[in-house]
Write a structure and sequence with these properties.
Blueprint lengths: L22 H6 L1 H12 L2 E6 L2 E6 L2 H10 L4 E3 L1 H4 L2 H4 L8 H11 L5 H6 L1 H13 L6 E3 H18 L8 H18 L12 H25 L8 H7 L10 H14 L2 H16 L1 H14 L14 H13 L6 E5 L3 E3 L2 E3 L4 E4 L1 H4 L21 H4 L18 H16 L2 E5 L7 E3 L3 E3 L4 E6 L1
Parallel strand pairs: 2-8
Antiparallel strand pairs: 1-2, 3-5, 4-12, 5-8, 6-7, 9-12, 10-11
Helix pairs in contact: 8-9, 8-19, 9-14, 10-11, 11-13, 14-16, 14-19
Length: 448
């Protein structure tokens, strides 16, 4: 742990107004606010959200200190905890010994060799989706790829088919995350048990979400033959005291892994196709790589090392439009950061959106330039200049899964179809727990 010997006062930052502090400007444009904070006040800045003191750490060495060296003295921050009504006490939100126990239980499903075994399923389900497409068809790419990656997560992790329509479940998730995001940014919050219209709407959404996830668990529990998938491992797991997971904990882990298993990749694909459609020279180079290496076939896991430009496009997409745009840690003891005192309860924000646009490391940081990743660029970057999956002991467990999935789906789709963004769709961002499009991006399919 770093020494607590520190200078007096707080890091520099914008003036806070009254009881709300900087909450109004933060809520109005969180992405712009965080970026201005780093630009105007340096590698460690300070602001206030109501009564909460927040530091924004944008210095890559400070990020490493928080996520790695002092990690055991931080927990997930208030914003992450606010989503517990949806995620429960699963792998994303749990802490300490319980989190370590659950991580060890889940880890085998995400080892590199196991993830590579999922590649044929990823390609097969993508090809099934394409069989229903036709030139001239209009699709909403975020919903389309969310549906695909949902099916992939269920099959690879839970060995289940996604039967029936996901529309009601998807709508319930959107409602729940909308309401929870609004709640995080509200200074005065009614208790969740109080029957406000928003709380009643949240309860209805949570009932639908739980119904869907309980259906996954019931289907997995009812199977007569032995399976070796992650869901079976969770159902049969024995805790240190010899007991099994409670129904609530099983639901929390299944929900967390199901959402984490498809949401990040769905967003990476959505933003990739948006950016590719806006940059025809990138699309031409991608297509040339795919035709040369794959010749129209879907890639295997072994093919991916021969698709460096595809990897560069994915890296650049996750740099420019990172699915996770900010993470936070809350101090549990007194610490030091950049010479300043971090009191227990202070929150450190670390923003991929901010750091991935640092002009010290990324030339023309607001431009989509996949070529920047060629020639070993990633190896020359400081460790926490680029960190789309977080870092330290809480590095996203599904990072290898997500990157391979995107690298298989992009060429499988792109060799058959191209996307034209509809002229009446306006680009916009909706930062919630992940970075969503403000409205569903509508595209028209064209055959190759």
């Amino acid at each position: 742990m770093s020494s607590v010997t520190s200078r007096a006062g707080l890091p520099p930052g914008p003036k806070a107004s009254g009881i709300a502090g900087n909450l109004p400007e933060f809520s109005a444009n969180v992405l712009g606010f965080l970026r201005r904070l780093a630009r105007d006040y340096g590698p460690l800045a300070s602001f206030r959200l109501g009564p909460r003191r927040i530091f924004l750490a944008s210095g890559h060495d400070l990020i490493e200190q928080v996520l790695v060296h002092d990690a055991k003295h931080y927990v997930k921050h208030f914003g992450a905890r606010a989503y517990k009504p949806v995620l429960g006490n699963g792998l994303v939100t749990s802490e300490g010994a319980f989190w370590r126990q659950q991580r060890r239980l889940v880890q085998p499903a995400f080892l590199k060799t196991q993830v590579q075994s999922y590649a044929p399923t990823m390609a097969e389900l993508t090809e099934q989706m394409l069989a229903g497409w036709s030139p001239g068809q209009s699709i909403q790419i975020d919903l389309t790829f969310s549906d695909l990656t949902s099916r992939i997560a269920l099959k690879t992790l839970f060995d289940l088919e996604d039967e029936g329509s996901r529309e009601q479940f998807t709508s319930a998730l959107a409602v729940a995350f909308d309401l929870m995001s609004q709640r995080v940014r509200r200074l005065v919050k009614a208790p969740l048990w109080f029957p406000t219209p928003q709380n009643l709407e949240l309860r209805r959404a949570l009932r639908e979400i739980n119904r869907k996830v309980d259906g996954f668990i019931a289907a997995g529990s009812a199977r007569s033959e032995a399976r070796d998938d992650l869901l079976t491992r969770l159902i049969n797991a024995k805790l240190p005291d010899g007991s099994s997971m409670t129904d609530a904990q099983l639901r929390d882990e299944a929900m967390t892994l199901y959402l984490a298993g498809h949401e990040t990749t769905a967003l990476a694909l959505t933003w990739s196709w948006y950016l590719i459609a806006k940059h025809p020279q990138v699309e031409e180079r991608l297509l040339a790589e795919w035709q040369s290496v794959l010749g129209g076939a879907s890639p295997t896991a072994d093919d991916l090392r021969s698709l460096p430009y595809t990897a560069a496009v994915i890296n650049e997409t996750m740099r420019l439009l990172p699915p996770v745009y900010v993470i936070g840690r809350e101090a549990t003891t007194e610490l030091e950061l950049a010479g300043y005192r971090v009191k227990p309860g202070y929150t450190i924000f670390i923003s991929q959106w901010v750091n991935h646009r640092d002009p010290k490391f990324f030339h023309e940081p607001d431009e989509f330039i996949p070529e920047r990743w060629e020639g070993g660029f990633a190896q020359r970057l400081p460790k926490y200049a680029y960190f789309p999956f977080g870092g330290g002991q809480r590095l996203c467990i599904g990072n290898t899964f997500a990157l391979m999935e995107a690298a298989i789906i992009l060429p499988t789709v792109g060799q058959r179809f191209r996307f034209t963004i509809d002229a009446n769709w306006e680009f916009g961002l909706k930062p919630q727990i992940t970075l969503l499009p403000a409205t569903h991006p509508t595209t028209t399919l064209q055959s190759r």
